[in-house]
Amino acid sequence: MPAFFIRVKVKPNARVSALAEAVDGTWLAQLKAPPADGKANDELIALVARHFVCSRSSVSVKSGAAARLKLVKIEE
To answer: Cα–Cα distances in Å, from 36 out to 1, 49, 51?
Structure first.
């Protein structure tokens, strides 16, 4: 299965959840969830899966799980 990676800058505790691509090729994810107990990462995975129309199990955070800048792997 081919896979691709995207760099995502996360902003937790936002009013609404949204995912948008920036000019430089990174993605900006605004998440309602707080950055505690992995809640923001869970919401990020769901948001990316919904945006790229794939299952949640095909999306994973490869690096930066505790940071604002994350590398997310998406398997097709």
So the answer is: 32, 21, 23
